[in-house]
Structure formats: structure tokens, C-alpha cells
Amino acid sequence: MSLNVSRRSFIVGSAQAGAGLVLGVSLAGCATDEGMSSDTSMPKKGLEANAFVSVATDGTVTVQIKHLEMGQGTYTGLATLVAEELDADWGQVRAVNSEANPEKYNNLFWGKFQGTGGSTAIANSFMQLREAGAAAKAMLVAAAASSWGVPASELTTDKGQVFHSASGRQIGYGQLAELAALQKVPEKITLKEPSQFKLIGQKLPRKDSGKTNGTAVFTQDIQLPGQLTALVAHPPRFGAKLKSFDATNARQVPGVVDVVQISNGVAVLANDYWQAKTGRDLLQIQWDDSKAMTKGSDQLMAEYKDLAKKPGLVAVKTGDVDSAFAQADKVIEAEFEFPYLAHSPMEAMNCVVQTKQVGGAYQSAELWYGAQLHTGDQMSVAKLLGIEPAKVAINTIFAGGSFGRRANPASDYVLEAAEIAKAYGKDVPVKLVWSREDDTRAGYYRPMYFHKLKAGLDSKGTLVAWQHRIVGQSIIEGTLFEGFLVKDGIDHTSVEGASNLPYAIPNLQVELHTTKVEVPVLWWRSVGSTHTAYATECFLDEVARAAGKDPVELRMALLTDQPRHRGVLALAVEQSGMKGNSDKNKAYGVAVHKSFDTYVAQVVELSKSSSGFKLEKVTCAVDCGVPVNPDVIKAQMEGGIGFGLSPALYSEIHIDNGAVRESNFHDYQVIRMRDMPKVDVHVVPSTEPPTGVGEPGTPVIGPAVANALAAAGGPVERRLPMKTPLS
Amino acid sequence: MFLWLSLARKALQLEGKYVISFELNGSKVEVDVEPDTPLLWVVRDTLGLTGTKFGCGMGLCGACTVHLNGQPIRSCSMPISAISEQSITTIEGIGSDSALHPVQQAWIEESVPQCGYCQSGQIMSATALLQQNPTPSLQEIKYFMAGNICRCGTYPKIQKAILKAAAQLQSQNSFESESNISEFNNYELAQEVTS
């Protein structure tokens, strides 16, 4: 495919640089693929083709990664896109985190805003990074052509080499790099046809190395000269404020350097974690609970249930549900309840901040952490310190998981680190560390939701009406994403997955009640689909049972105009062995759902015996367009299924009198290896533009399990986590 | 508990300081820290070996797993006073760049890590498992590894990598002893688990 790339952002950037080359973007202390410490021998400068690609004189290709690597494989996937069009040798490619810069490294779907989320990295980068790689290749080829005095059209490239077959000559990219830097940035480049791909579609070794020998650097591992570690005592109840505190005992702990007040509690600064934690736990604090939340989650759920009796704001309306229900032969109803959920990544929230003052005035700040909403965090810290966002430098490093938690528009933990540094007042590096208990209790949960569904069947059992009412807090209201994602009072993330129900139902209405509660909420891997997929896919099975229809056949009949839904469902069903199963002790459940433009179907196989139900196997089919790295896609489906099984079976955050009941992995339980079923993933071959895979595997597993349980004669689980134990 | 207290007392008696010595990855080290400091924080903050991770601080997640005299323990809830004159091995001590441990090698070949934060602990548990049981069944792997949480959900790949490493270790032993051990059974099992 050929295209004019002059309008593309990176080329524009190049042109503005005047000499046709964008200068390097290495920040002091910027992490490398091996982490911060080990790579002192940076490759020598050669070709810096554009904001994303450089080729050193030793042949090393460096790809600037603007997205956060939190396990989803973005280092590998994005580097693959560059390497493909560059015809690079995969072994010579390294990925590094780019600087935070909303002009150069913005998420193309989010305007001038850098960040990672919504499973957008591959979709964002598929053209951008291929063009970047192709442009670099064109400059290398031009250099070889000029060096050899032959037309560029006679040259070919492969694995980091340029070849001239007519004369039998070949030369490595590294040797060409300096000459290539003198070539013009191409105005028109040609991208490969999918049939020409050599790396896209292959299993390639991952580029986020250092994760098997302890050398990969996470925020927790940052140790800068003079650095202090800070732990914070937060108010136990949401909405409470600090009244007074006595730090006498805390200050006597050896290693404790200072105790400071911040907006959301009291911070203890010490030379290391254990000292800071010991000191923090000795603080005597009086909280002002006069404005603290008094309700609990049980009371909230009862209120939500009452609210659901009334009509909400209409998010989508097709036909006329009221008259359809009036004429229906059979009406069925069901209610679903979903609790608050913590993200609980293995690495609890943390952030390192170093401020710089001149004459008592803040000049700049430098941060080290797994940044996920770079631009928002820059703005937040800049506002706190009274400086420009561009003066907040971010060294993005690997995150030990996130699942949405590090992408907080409120920048909560980042601002907390900066507040502590400001309150302490000296320009030393401060590392804020949350304990697991702090992380579990500090809020920003997947909101609690109540769903009420109603379906109407005609005399033939055809589904003619569907009403879906959702009650819960808005994730987006009050954030800088409000303008994009809240329309006419409807937070898109509250209803996504329900408002775009793929099934052909003539009368459909989705309504929303947005509640105001003091509990801070946030997106959680697969966002709205975490609850809408469960409610819709479980309820559809209830409809099938009421209509006496097979759940797969009913879905296929309602998905006439949805070939990709049908494709994944048919593939998963075929591969699962559910058809033709004659074992009475086995039962199957299916669910299919699209999120973030990726289609996933899952079939769960349950066995039943005198000891109960056992989760045996999950068969998963995924259609994410061009599969850039099938092994990473499979890993994300396996991981997404594991992540989705936790809330289906175990996880729940309770609020009692405004305080969080759970604290650590003993009472906020997540799936462990002994309970993980076998997972069999099938990737649909496709030439459609690629879409993300980090989130879409998660929402499908819960309803597939519930549907299997009901099919096995177990209870219909309408409240998560399910009560029925699955061994 | 009594053992810990008596060891703590012994450590305290040394020149009136809280100096505790132990062996870390084959080298003797001495540290001067509060005796209740968990081994995890001594290894990470005092000695600067950051491969061992902090996950929960209560021995619930396994991210901090190290070996104490060859046995897997949760270093986040083991006071340093209990480690006096004992031998500790961390992720940094089980292989080298030139000779990775077969478990590490299998982890790389199977592309196990996602975020990677729990993987040091997973690998330390897996190496301990294979020392105790060179030919674990899938069920034995699932139960032995149940103390190590991975939020990314790398469990299927971990299972495959452990079976692969087991086959590799068996193959090595088989070569060394020129005897025929059932590595093929394990390898077939590995195929079956993930095919």
C-alpha cells in the first residue's frame, strides 16, 4: 500500500526540525529495555530517522515506545511494527520508553494527550509505527544507493542489511546509519502488503526483557542518591479529613527523617521502607469524620435497587419497548448485582518524585514510575508546583500491572508523591510507596452497579423487546475526559456493552441512573463491559431457557448482521467439543462480546460430581484483526480470563460506615494457579486493521461460567462474586 | 517463634549492636538493622538486590519468595533475626547471564512474564518445586505454586515452562548418568497441557 505521509504527525515533526531529522529524545535516566541501570553503553549515534526510530552505527535499532508496558506486550508489539517495515533484524531491535510529550507522543485517538488505555496501543500504532519504520528504511536504502552509485530501485533489504543482487554487494544498517542521516526524509513511502509481512503474525521473543533474572526495573526498585521513602496514613473513611496528629513516637524510629501533613493524610519520610512503615504505624492521628461517608455498600445496593424501579436517562432507544411488552406473550425479568472491585496489581501504587527549586521557587520536577496517563499527570503535578506541564519530566518505567489503576485522571498517587516532596521542601528524591493495605483501601474502584433487565417474547418465542436499566457511579464525570465520554448525562463507560448490544431486537431500550457516592471510582480492565457483558450474556441465556431455545442457536439467529460475532462464536463452539458431547456430567456455557473493537467468544466446560462443580476448560476465540503477535494475543486471552475469573468467583470490596472492609489478599481474594482452568485460545485469521487484546478477554469469562453453571443444573448466579464454589 | 526469639537475642548480644550475618547467594554478608526488619527489606533496601519483590507484606502472594537453606520462604514476613548464620538464595543467585537456570531458560522460551513483577517469586518457587520433585504432575504443580499470585494470569504459561524445565533437567541428569529417565513423558504432558 502506498500513501502520502506528509500529513502524518511524525513526518510533520521531522519537517519542523529543519534538517529533516528529529533530535534524539533520550532523557537523563530514561529507562532502557533492561531497566535503568544496566545499559551504560548506549549505541553510538547514527540515524535518528524520526520520533520513533533510530539506527545506531553498530546496527542497533531503537524504537521509542510511547505507551506504558504493564505486561500487555506493547514493547514487543510496537517494536514489531517498526521492525517489519524497516526489515530489521529482530535480535538488533530494542525498545525504550519515550519521553512524556503530548506533541510528539500523543495517543492518536485522544488528541494532544499521551496515555495508554482502552486497548488502543496497537490500533493507534499500526500505521504510525509502520510508516516510521518504512521512512527509516527508505533513508538507509537511499544511503546505500548513493554510496554504491546505483538506483535505489535495484536494492532490497532483509534482516538489517541492504542488498544489491546485481553486483552481489551487501551492507549492514549500522554501517549506513551516518550516511543515512544525511538523506532526505522521504515524502512518499510504500508500506508492505499483508502478504509481505515477515514479522507481523509471528511469535517473536518479547522485548520487555530482564523479567526472569530480577534485572527489570520497576518503580519499587528505583534508588536514587539521597532518596527518601515515604508511607502515608490515609483517613480510614472516605470523606474524612485530618484533625490532628502526634508524631512523637514515629520520629523516634531510627531512620525516620520527617513527618509531614498532606491533603489526604500524614506522610512519614525515612531512609527505607521498613523504617517509614514502622514510623507510619506509630502515628497517633485524630480524624475529622464530620464529613465522612456513613453508608455501607449493602445500603447503597438497596438504594440502587429502589432507584432501578424508576425510569432512568435513556441511553439508547429502538422501537417502542412499552407497547412491545404490552403485546408480548411472555415477559421475563432479572436483576444483577456487581460489587466494588480493586485493581490490586502485584506492584502496589508508588511513584518517585524529585523537585528542583531556585530561590524557593519551583523550576521543574522529574518523576520515575509506570506512567499511564502521562499528559494528565504532567498537568496535575505542574499545577501543584506552579510550573508549566512541560517542566514535569516523566521517566516511564515498567509497571507491575495496572489494569486501569495507574491511568487515573485525578493522578491520585502521583500527586500524593509530589505533595509529600513539596511538604518536605527539600529537593531530594522522594519515593512514595503504598503497602498492600494502603493500595486495597485507597479507593478508585470499579464502581458498584445494579442492573435490571426485562425481555419480551412473542407467541413463537421470538425475542421482541429488551429493556436494560443500569444504576451506578460515573467513572468519567468530573474528569478531563468528561467532554469526550459523557453525552447528555450518559457516561458512555457506564452503558458500553449494553447500549451497543449486537443482537437484532426490534424494541430495545437502555437506561442509566448515575449515582453520587463518596467512593472514588475508576476504569478497571474492560471498563463498562466488566458488568454489562455479564448482565446481557447471562440474561440472554435466561431468555433462551424461557423460550426453550439453544443458547448458541439463539445467539446465531440474533447475530445475523454481525459476522465477526458469529465468527468467533462458531469457532469457539466448534473447538470446544460441546457439540456432540454425550457425557451427562459435563455442561457447557457460552458468551460472546465485543469490547474495544475486538470480538471474543468463550465456551466454558464444567463437570459435576458428588463433590460439586469443577471448572474444566475454557475455549476462547478472538478476532482482533491482523494478529500482530499470536503468542501475545493468546497470553492476553489467558490472562484476561484469569483476571475475569477473580470477580466472577472471589473478589469483592465491601464498604462499612464509609470504610473499606478488605485489606490484603486474604480477604480480597483473586484467582490462584490451582483454580485456573485449562485455556485453549484460537485466533481468527484476519486482514482487518488490528485492535487491542489487553482488555477484551476479561468480560466474557464471567457470563460463560454462569451460563455453564446454570446449564449444569446449578443456581442462576445473578450477584457477583458467585456463591457456588467451583473447584 | 521461640527459635526466632532466641536467635534475635543472640544477634543482639554481638557487641551491643544489631549486627546479623548470613550467607546471601554464596557470599557472607553482615547487616546492622533492627532485628524485626523483614528479610525482604534487608535484601532490597539495605543490600540493594531488588530482584525480590514486595507484593503484600503478609506472606499471601509469594512475590518475595527466596530460598532459606534451599527451602522456599516468604521473605516479607521473615524477620532478619531469624536468618542469622543461615543461607539465603535470591533470584540473583540461581543462575548467571552465561548460564541461566533451566527454569529461567524455560521462562524465556515460553515468554511467560507479562508485567513480570511476580515472576522472581514464581521462579524461586518453581526451582524449589523441581528440587523437591523433579517430575511433578500438573496437579502437583498447581498446588505447589498456589501460594504465588500472578494478577496478569500467566498461570498456563508457568505450568508449561515448569514442565519444560523439568524435562530439561531430567535430560541433563539423564545425560550425566547415562541413564534413561522419563523426560519424554513430561514433555508430552507439556504439549498436552497447552495444545
Explain what you see.
The complex is a heterodimer of chains A (727) and B (195). Chain A is of the alpha+beta class and 727 residues long. Chain A is 28% helix and 25% strand. Chain A contains 18 helices and 31 strands. Chain A has a seven-stranded mixed sheet, with helices on both faces. In chain A, strands 15-25-22-21-16 form a five-stranded mixed sheet, with helices on both faces. A four-stranded mixed sheet of chain A has the order 2-3-4-5. Chain A is globular and about 80 Å long. Mean pLDDT of chain B is 87; it is low at 12-16 and 179-188. Chain B starts with a helix and ends with a helix. The longest helix of chain B has 23 residues, at 155-177. Chain B has seven helices and five strands. Chain B is of the alpha+beta class and 195 residues long. Chain A: This is Oxidoreductase. Chain A: GO terms for molecular function: oxidoreductase activity. Chain A: InterPro entries: Ald_Oxase/Xan_DH_a/b, AldOxase/xan_DH_MoCoBD1, AldOxase/xan_DH_MoCoBD2, AldOxase/xan_DH_Mopterin-bd_sf, N-heterocyclic_Hydroxylase, OxRdtase_Mopterin-bd_su_IorB, TAT_signal.
Percent range for β-strand residues of chain A: 25-35%
SSE topology string of chain B: HEEHEEEHHHHH
What is the global morphology of chain A? globular
User: Which range best describes the helical content of chain A: under 10%, 10-25%, 25-40%, 40-55%, 55-70% or over 70%?
Assistant: 25-40%
Protein name (chain A): Oxidoreductase
Organism (chain A): Litoribrevibacter albus
GO molecular function, one term (chain A): oxidoreductase activity
Domain Aldehyde oxidase/xanthine dehydrogenase a/b hammerhead (chain A): 213-291
Fill in the keyword field for this structure.
heterodimer; A: seven-stranded mixed beta sheet; five-stranded mixed beta sheet; 18 helices; globular; disordered N terminus; B: 195 residues; alpha+beta; oxidoreductase (chain B); metal ion binding (chain B); 2Fe-2S (chain B); Diverse_Oxidoreductases (chain B); iron (chain B)
